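Weekly modeling sync, notes
Attendees: AB, CL, MP (scribe)

Item 1: holo prediction request
CL wants a bound-state model with adenosine-5'-triphosphate before deciding which constructs to order. AB pointed out that an apo prediction alone won't tell us much about the pocket. Agreed to run with the ligand included and paste results into these notes for async review.

Input as submitted:
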Amino acid sequence: MQHDGSGRIWVEGLSKQFGPVAAVQNLSFVVEPGSVTGFLGPNGAGKTTTLRMLLGLVTPTAGRALINGRPYHQLGNPAQVVGAVLENEGFHPKRTARNHLMVYAAAIGVPDQRVDQVLGLVGLSPAAGRKVGGFSLGMRQRLALATALLGNPQVLVLDEPANGLDPEGIVWLRTFLRSLAREGRTVLVSSHLLSEVEQTIDQVVIISHGMTRYYGSLDQLRSSQTSRVLVQAADANALVKALSEAGYTQVEALPDGRIAVAGATRQQVGDVAAKASIALYGMDEDRADLERLFFQLTTPQYAAPPPGYGQPPTGGWAYAPPPGQPPQSPYQQSPYQQQGPHDGWGGQR
Ligand SMILES: Nc1ncnc2c1ncn2[C@@H]1O[C@H](COP(=O)(O)OP(=O)(O)OP(=O)(O)O)[C@@H](O)[C@H]1O
């Protein structure tokens, strides 16, 4: 395939098997220049493996990961096409930030002046002469980002860049990534937290167990939110029974005595109650928020991949991603009760 100069990331039918572990399974997505794509999934979902395949560090078992229409190792001067921040980057602790960047600048053939430019871009100018060994995790993240930007690349691939940043750093990162996309760059950023990147991204690829669970715009995901009717009944058991007889089985008893009914409108619940002569004291609608949808999509007991997901792009697919629809959620257990692995911003995993 020709070097098309587009800055597009193209992942097609990508798979990686580590012995018995299917780390990535038939993954397909496209990231267009001028946009930020969130690559999301819980720990162990296959994000790093995918990014490493894109960067030529892991050989795919099947499929292709292309930048500018080419695999990484055919890019010519890759540092000037794609800049990457991977997890656990090693920095020499005794080197200053500036020295570290000087070494990299020489290695990829960019002038020394670029070092001070990138230090300024990531807000590290005041710490340029300090040894990296004394840097906080957030400062290391900024230095990694500065390193990725040295070659003024068209494409940025960032693995969990928000890890270790404080809230101020996160806001800074958000603004920074948006500005890179506005300059026409292609930005692919991974995270295990949707809330971390929600305000930054244009589209999202959500994976779990190496498979695509959702690929599309966040707006599409929002509009497909499922809702529940929360109802306070005089006789909750009788209402559950009546609902079940009417075919509404996605019902959960809430600790406050109400019951939550998914897959039914308020009117449908009201009609069932009226027919069974059960008094209702109140009804509310509970729309699922994005974080809960993300949880549903990536937790096996909630999510079965919908047919067609994770299929390689065909025809005009790259420009019109398959419509994203979350799988049906049985709402049998509150996702809020299961948020153990999600430890918030900057948390160490
Ligand atoms: N070199 C390897 N050898 C064997 N198994 C591996 C290797 N690299 C990754 N895996 C396995 O592949 C799966 C996906 O791991 P990966 O690191 O890609 O996930 P991730 O989504 O990046 O997770 P995290 O957010 O925890 O970094 C995991 O089960 C992991 O243990």
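Recorded for review: The chain has a mean pLDDT of 81.
Action items: CL to compare against the apo run; MP to circulate these notes.
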